[in-house]
Amino acid sequence: MKGYVRVLLKIIYIVIIVALILGSIALMGMHFVKRWSSHEPPTKYKETVVKPLHTTLGFHTSLLGYSFIRESVKEYNEEDTADALVIPGLYGAESIRSGVKEMCTSMVPQSVCIAEDYLLIGAYCKTGQHYSVIYVLDKESYEYIKTVILPARYHVGGLAYDRVNKRLWLSCHKDVAQANSISYYKLLMYDYDRYKAPVTFDSINNLYTIPRNSFLAYYNSRLYIGYFQKKDESVLQTFEIDNKTGELVKHNSSRYQQSYGGKLPRNIVTPINVATIGSKVQGITFSKYRMFVTESYGVTESRLATFSILTDDVERQRYTNDEAISVIELPQKLEQITVDGEDMYSIYESAAYAYRYYSFPSIDRVIKMKVDDVLRHGVDKDIFEQIIASEEAASSEASKDAYEVKFDEIFYKMGH
């Protein structure tokens, strides 16, 4: 009996020691995570730094568990330099603090989009000390061109470019959710050394119908705006753009006045459609007949879901993984994605100073993928071929309808 008690006491003692060790490790981990999130390391740099965290070999090695990503990177890197697609600012970025230009070493990349000949990356300061920025790179060579400093500390969870009106739209927040825009011309002309000030918005739009503008995307003269929810399903709201002015369309605010104590302006930006999306959504983008949605939070793997948006279901009411035609898993901390022709660009926040020491892998580059490969990777070959056939049929029908409309217009003019 005494021997049994002695063994039991030893087991209890070992359990206590292990618990203390694990508890100490956890406390130390929490301490460092908090420090990385609230502290900015010093830097000797005076301008935005374009420098990878990893060697090319180290980067490829870190993706061993993600064959799809590795194949995409390999395909696009055949003619690129070792630094191709490196996210700027990971070691320091030009910004503003208390009205003075200053280097920020805690910038977190959040968003990405293509605007004409340029690739744009949005980033915010994790410590909340510096203004947010947009990095401008050449789309073809990936050469870094400049840093555009935004007028506040926005999260910049979404960037979207309207090719028709040549405007860049941004996810913003000031007391309420906002969708603000900058003209393409102003973006090109911006030079902090010349103006000694952050860029200014050409359009500021308060969004009273949604709690936050966490991400956005442009598609067919509409902005699709959603907000991040950690656990619950969320909403995706569709806002119409007036192509005569380039502005979001406003409507009478009477139906929303009660929620704001009758203090809203007479006309406000309101959605023309509200759909349900899943939890943990970080970004969306569109190709001709598909919508893509990213999900990520914490250290778990990210997800990229593909939805069909053929003509008859472009404004459906639910976009959750149960309705998706494909869902694939990608590395943790995937943020926004954007489509440009046949290419999809994705950006991760895992290489930011606040996350790089406990994110595996920490991705310090914009990952470029083929749009069809994203779908092909997530479905069987037969299903993929059926989807492609449906899209080709829809495209053919749309071309036929467009031709008939044009013919009717010409015939009408001839008769009059």
CATH architecture of the largest domain: 6 Propeller
How large a portion of the residues is in β-strands, by DSSP E? 25-35%
* N-C termini distance: 110 Å
Q: What share of residues is helical?
A: 25-40%
What general outline do the C-alpha atoms trace? globular
Largest sheet: 6 strands, mixed
List the helices and strands and how they pair.
Elements: H1 2-38, H2 56-62, H3 67-76, E1 93-97, E2 100-104, E3 107-115, E4 118-125, E5 133-138, E6 144-149, E7 159-162, E8 167-174, E9 176-183, H4 184-189, H5 192-195, E10 206-207, E11 215-218, E12 222-226, E13 234-242, E14 247-248, E15 250-252, E16 267-269, E17 273-277, E18 281-286, E19 290-295, E20 302-308, E21 318-319, E22 326-330, E23 334-340, E24 343-348, E25 367-370, H6 371-378, H7 381-415
Parallel strand pairs: 17-21
Antiparallel strand pairs: 1-2, 3-4, 4-5, 5-6, 7-8, 8-9, 9-10, 11-12, 12-13, 13-14, 13-17, 15-16, 18-19, 19-20, 20-22, 23-24, 24-25
